[in-house]
Design brief:
This protein is mainly α and 250 residues long. 82% of the residues lie in helices and 0% in strands. It is globular, with a radius of gyration of 20 Å.
């Protein structure tokens, strides 16, 4: 169960370095909370707030790249964050963006044909059953198996290009694929583990919404923040284990 060990190791890095986690990701958390609340307000108001939400979304993307790069550099090359903010490294952030864009293109080229396969498969399924619940469950399972698992597997196989770009040690997608060849089912179990953990983290939202909508929105933002940092930590762990040959401590 090395996939589970990788996930646990990544979570421990976030919790065990929580002071640095806040220094690196505190701004991202503030932007996420502001964006979440502004979207709720904007849904009740006019286009001005919608424009503000768009600008916050753009800011969140930039801050997300900043935080991801800073986290990779903190763990892999021990670059200490500043007192309140992580160091801004424009060259590394740009390299990270370019590597993310290339990786995203590869995933899109994989996912689009798989989605077409799912679409072709569900037409007979939907026509054969009048009951919407059973086909809905079957479609969801089919989509997960045919699209999400392969996409997650390929993403994790190629993901070392991201920490590599962040730490000024660029590598090609081909090199990343070769270096992670021994992973096998590790990446599948890792994908399943992160899916279950994400579901558990989001589960309180509906219950909190019955008490207070703003509280539910804040919890949702915090959950997304934690998921983002653990996700960045997973990529860091994969790079450290498969590229630098570090041992797992979980």
């Amino acid at each position: 169960m090395q996939g589970l060990a990788i996930f646990i190791h990544a979570v421990r890095m976030v919790i065990g370095n929580f002071g640095q986690t806040l220094r690196i990701g505190g701004v991202a958390l503030a932007v996420m909370v502001a964006l979440t609340l502004s979207q709720e307000v904007g849904s009740r108001a006019d286009g001005t707030l919608s424009a503000a939400a768009f600008l916050l979304s753009l800011a969140l993307m930039i801050v997300g790249l900043w935080v991801a790069v800073a986290w990779h550099r903190f763990i892999l090359i021990e670059e200490t964050p500043g007192t309140m903010l992580p160091a801004w490294n424009g060259a590394a952030i740009w390299a990270y963006f370019r590597a993310s864009f290339k990786l995203g293109l590869v995933l899109a080229l994989l996912i689009i044909p798989l989605m077409l396969i799912v679409a072709l498969a569900i037409f007979p399924m939907m026509g054969a059953r009048a009951d919407a619940a059973s086909p809905g469950l079957a479609v969801g399972m089919l989509a997960f198996v045919v699209t999400l698992l392969p996409a997650a597997y390929v993403f994790y196989r190629l993901s070392p290009v991201l920490p590599g770009a962040a730490t000024d040690r660029p590598m090609t997608l081909r090199e990343a694929w070769y270096q992670t060849a021994t992973g096998g089912w590790t990446f599948v179990t890792l994908a399943l583990t992160t899916l279950v953990a994400g579901w558990a983290l989001d589960a309180p939202v509906l219950a909190l919404a019955q008490i207070s909508l703003p509280l539910a929105l804040i919890w949702s933002a915090v959950a997304q923040w934690l998921a983002f940092l653990v996700g960045a930590s997973i990529l860091t762990t994969l790079y450290g284990h498969y590229i630098e040959k570090r041992e797992l401590n979980a």
